[in-house]
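Subject: complex prediction, re-run

Hi both,

The earlier run crashed halfway through, so I resubmitted it with identical inputs.
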Amino acid sequence: MTDTTWDPSKPILEIENLSISFFTRMREIPAVMDFSCTVMAGEAMGLVGESGCGKSTVALAVMRDLGKNGRIVGGSIKFKGRDLTHMNDEELRHIRGSEIAMIYQEPMASLNPAMKIGAQLAEVPMIHQGMSKDEAWALARQIVADVRLPDPDRMLQSYPHQLSGGQQQRIVIAMALMSKPALLILDEPTTALDVTVEAGIVDLVKDLGHKYGTSMLFISHNLGLILDVCDRLCVMYSGEAVETGNVVEVFDKMRHPYTQALFRSIPLPGADKNSHPLVAIPGNFPLPHERPKGCNFGPRCDYFQDGRCNAADVPMFPVPGDDRHATRCIKWTEIDWDAPMALKASKEKTPIGKVVLKMEDLKKYYSVSSGAFGSGTAKVVKANETLSFEAREGETLAIVGESGCGKSTFAKVLMGLETATSGSILLFDENVQSTPIQQRNTDTVSSVQMVFQNPFDTLNPSMNVGRQIIRALEIFKQGGSDEERHARMLELLDLVKLPRAFAERMPRQLSGGQKQRVGIARAFAGGAKVVVADEPVSALDVSVQAAVTDLLMDIQRENKTTLLFISHDLSIVRYLSDRVMVMYLGHVVEMGTTDQVFQPPYHPYTEALLSAVPIADTKVIRKRIVLDGDIPSAMNPPPGCPFQTRCRWKSQVPGGLCDREMPPVQVLEGGHQVKCHLSAEVLASMEPVIKIAAE
Amino acid sequence: MLKFVARRLGVMVLTALALTFVVFYLTNLPPNLEKLARTEGSVRMTDQAVASWIENNGHGGSVFGRYAQWLGIAPGWVLTDDKGVTRGRCIQNNQDPATAATYCGVLQGEWGFSTVFKKPVLESVLQKLGSTGWLMMWVMIVMVPVSLIMGVLSGMREGSRLDRSLSIVAIATTATPEYVSGVILVAIFASATAGISPILHDWGWISGKTLFLGTATSAMDNITFWNFALPVLTIALYGIGYIARMTRASMTEVMTQQYIRTARLKGVRFRTVVMRHALRNALIAPFTVIMLQFPWLLNGVVITEALFNYKGFGWTLVQAAGNNDIDLLLGCSVVAVLVVLVTQLISDIGYVFLNPRIRLA
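This time it finished cleanly. Structure:
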């Protein structure tokens, strides 16, 4: 169904001065204002921005699926020269799925749970090309093979819940490709997936883009991914495009203060918590109905000039000399863009003190029954296997691994929410491995605290912030009277750099970063000595992430807290941790100082993990190592080395040792531990995954 | 699958035992037996005579023992009185005690003798169950499709005018009890003096006095549209509103799911989105509710059966309870328990077919 009048040298998608508003009973909320962008044939366009900036709204507007309340109030969206904004439902239906297809953030939710994969795939050509059922299934089989899924016939007969997250996302991609669309919209396609799976999906999307010549609109908050996938990008802030241009030009020669601030707040290689701390963007994202006059970024901008920046709406200024590079900054010609960033006072490294936490041979097994109604033989899930390490006062120990590697189980055992199957946990020379949290005394409980991943769910929605902190103080038996506790609560708010007035606020009035600060204040209410931070910033936007990590570091410096930082994000781990522990299927596969782990020799899994993390720096050259397959189920781990099914170094080990024996822990130079069969020579011959090109 | 059904059947047997024991215990409480003695024997019996009557008619001893006898897993009682006449649970009138069976309980098909209807319990229960079965079947035939269509239509576009009007109908019908809607229906369609029947009669459109019959007694022998429509409608109306509301809630939830958006953005026609993508997911919750309607119908038809004078299961239950007919009450409860358990088993198995995420082991 190609429109014959369309000339392939013209843009596939042309959005001009698009404005979208949502209408509520109270008011009209403008979500996107004056947004323009152009996607040429075969081009990949990235849309970057923090949550709430309107990037997904743009995508849905292209699909004309804004729901009941959303409406396009101005501008045009031209697809192959035809204006989508004036199409009726019948015309739109012919374009959706056949010429424009979309890939979504959560693959599980976007597949119909009660329909077989094959039926969901075959439906597309049956609707649009009027293909027969058999032909459509045959095509589905071919496309499923194209997205590199094993055993396509079985896949087609499966239901979505029988596949892993990565496989589901490949099916969603296959569904989008069924009728060879001209434009593919990808809305955060890998956010819900693990990094190694993400790397596979990104490779696939790039290859398929080349193979089918599909244009892409790639929405992401991850600048590194955009660099990997896209040719051009458009940075959005508060409903407006603030900078647009070629990816390399924007990354290297940014001409908008927001883009610059964004890059300074993400941990790139070279950033360091002590000598080169991250610079968080001050202030908060403006709410859609509280946007300032003039430049939206004005109140948070270092270059703000009263009377100019807030005088009138700022238009886009083209940057001459570059390829369609434009910026929405009135002062862009005046700012010295090459000036090095004002260095925040670099901080002293915290001295590392005595051992406060020691784990030896910790094991945690769960027994589960396999049947849905309790039948079948009970199986044992080995969530943690022989975990041994120690953590010292004032130290940050990062625990890294993908979902299902046992890092959260470990945190639960340490906190006392679960008891260990065997092994010992020594906390301040006290054995706590078999004491559940109900039986721990107040001192122990208050000295080991946790900061949770999702700040949106961890605060009681019907209790104000001050009351929640005071409640924690009461439980930890802090302060003798209500007045004392109130005073202490205000001090805690100061500690996490929240205004004291926030004590009266309800959680729903707080932003994500502010809620996480309350979570941190609560954790430190009892003077915690050991804090387990379980992915504390992964639910937050990048600019807020920097501020929250900084805060954690500051508190650590002041209180000499031991921080166990559980994360899957290696960039942030590299930035803030002293020592790193890499876990895979319940085993610690590598442990050492941050430098040891991030430099060769690596454990093969660490190597793959490092290569999978996208880095938003054009000067970094990464070696691509894409792991095949999925993480094996912990219920049914492979024999021998847990990583052997996906390891690319397996052939270097003679005699099939990896298939048979659990590798021993090799202690390398400087106490660096690697659980691998590879010989010392092979390990020494490894090359670094990340290289920074010479300037 | 077979293993699952076998295990569920095992659980069902245990549940049935527990439930029937509760009913047995309650119907065999001492005051009940006393009342039985006075109705069977003489109203002016002395307390002593009552006690000996209870003892002599096998109602003495522990409640467990009597329950086992009733069930047929313990030998029935046998007593020889002063006159040398041997009587027993299993001994019919004028039967030689030597030829009588040792066990005679529910398991042997001996459900006892109804004191109200003066015939064996099993026979009268089965007969009444048949009558109610017809009523239930027609109610289901009317209720299920109508309510599902109403629910799906109103749930597919939440907040639309169609949704609002259907919701009003559903709420109104479910808020009207059967004894109100039954009376209203009779007044409108089956009264010779009120409603539309006199008008139709005047115009000569109907030959009889009323359009529909106000009583369903004739339906026990021969079901026709004219004698059966009103009782069926009375029961169905109440259930229609209820199931339609459930279906609507389930449907509106499904329509907001992301996979519905996926389907829409694949270019699927709205009708096909509803039929192929939403319907099966939306039917999971109402299906359970529909299966729960069977036991409700069995016991909930009491009022309607009384109103339309239709002698079915509900009517029998009322008679049994009102006349302290212990064996009949127990028989009714056995049937009710079985119906509940069987429909729940069907509901669980059907659930698996609707929802592929649930597996049976």
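The first helix of chain A runs from residue 55 to 62.

- K.
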